[in-house]
Amino acid sequence: MSTFLISILAFIVAIGILVTFHEFGHFIVARACGVKVLRFSVGFGKSLWSCKDKHGTEYVIAAIPLGGYVKMLDEREGAVPVEELDYTFNRKSVWARFIIVLAGPAFNLLFAIFAYWLMFMIGIAGAIPIVGEVKPGSIADKAGIVAKDEIISVDHQPTRTWGQVAKQLMNRLGDKDQLEIETKQPNNPVKSHVLQISNWEFKGSRPDLTHGLGIEPYIPPIPPVILEIISNEPAEIAGILPGDVITQVNGKPVTQWKDFVDVTTVSINQSLNVVLKRQEKEITLVLIPRAKENANGEIVGFVGLVVKTEKLPDSLQRLERLNPIQALFAATQKTYDYTMLSFRIIGKMIIGDIGLRTLSGPITIAQGAGASVIVGIQYYLSFLALISISLGVLNLLPIPVLDGGHLLYYVIEIITRRPVSEKVQMFSFKIGMLLLLFLMTIAFYNDLLRLF
Length: 452
Description:
- The protein is an alpha+beta fold.
- It has helices spanning 3-32, 94-122, 139-142, 162-170, 209-213, 234-238, 257-264, 324-351, 362-375, 377-396, 403-416, 422-451; strands spanning 37-52, 58-72, 124-127, 131-134, 150-154, 157-158, 178-184, 191-196, 215-217, 226-229, 245-249, 252-253, 272-278, 281-287, 290-293, 299-302, 305-307, 317-320.
- A hairpin with a 5-residue loop joins strand 1 and strand 2.
């Protein structure tokens, strides 16, 4: 099965699960509060499958898998028989309406805890945060971090894997003061490094935060054996074929893939003499890298080659596996940490410390879904948890179209002791819809930039 198809299927499954959980939160709490639910729909548009239960609720799976909704009995949406007035949403107390609306995002966070709980019990491996290279003159270089250092903490928070390093660095996005990193090398004492991050740059569509500090993770040498050629790129034009082994570039020996990349990335529009081995024959070609912006916002030389990467050795990984009780505590803590982190990142976007280019849309989510499925079920669970948290946090924003907007109305109603007028709600709904469409457009545009 192709990677594209895997990504699409993994995306549909992910959205289906997360939307179902979100809407189930609204549904089950509405039922508990005595509200009649007319329809529970996963997806929008034309119904692909439907059925009804004994309470008269219609369950629907619709054609467009990008959301869902729970339709409740409500006098504002049509005439209601007198005998069913007590079951309408609009006649329930403000506190009942509040918890019904809050239940959707809350169930997303509960699902994240459940997914992380399973993930921790299955066990998930992460790369040990060993520094491969430090860019001369970078923030990390000035702080004294060197190759082969293992990062053991960031801001006094233990970091056993690169994922944990990334998480701690995300907490400092947009900050301009100092960052403390502790490192250690075998048989040497722990060293503390104070990094001045006033000039910490993270540009591009998917910026690597460690790269912005001047740190590149250690990766075992990759053989320069070509796996795939990207169509209409310089490598195909030059005549390189899958299976070729690059041995020299501009007279310099190439023993690993990095030797080749180091030359091509700084040789935009320059002719390179490439020597390669093809079925025991030695061939010399001329390759001219073109300019391309990478994920970190840098313009580099690009040739359109893909090499086969090997699985990271066990010696460079750490496995996290916990018993059910430990996993539950760890899952709850992880969900809390990422929820708070999401709110902090949104706050920094609002004040301009973080650009909108970091927003991701459905294409990036689909790519992430496919990649995590291929790696393993525990990584897919982690992906589901993270997207579920994002969905929960997004829905809590005080934008009228979202759950958070309705919660804001109810808070105002609790304080003023009267509901927000229909006129104000309709006006703010239009503003909220425009804002949401703007953000969705930006996210989709970012997706296309990353893709092309």
